[in-house]
Design a protein that fits this description.
about 80 residues, mainly beta, Immunoglobulin-like, 4-stranded antiparallel sheet, two-stranded antiparallel sheet, 6 strands, about 0% helix, about 55% strand, globular
């Protein structure tokens, strides 16, 4: 949900098995976190809460496939 509370989940579907690069940017466009996650099935849910500690604020999440093509973009608000 947006705005996001303590938990941050990404739900990805209709993506072939591959490694995805998840990049998180702050409001100024500065990359503040990058993580690579494998997609093993057509539908994946990633819980990023344990890996990323984002303070309150406005963020952009972009996911790139193995060809470095942007396949997902979302704006989130951490409250």
């Amino acid at each position: 949900p947006n705005p996001s509370g303590d938990e941050l989940y990404l739900y990805i579907q209709n993506v072939d098995a591959q490694k995805l690069n998840i990049q998180i940017y702050d409001i100024t466009g500065r990359e503040i976190h990058s993580i690579t996650k494998p997609v093993l099935s057509n539908t994946e849910t990633f819980n990023l809460s344990n890996e990323i500690n984002l303070p309150k604020g406005f963020y952009f999440i972009t996911i790139y496939n193995e060809k470095q093509e942007s396949i997902f973009f979302e704006q989130i608000i951490r409250k």
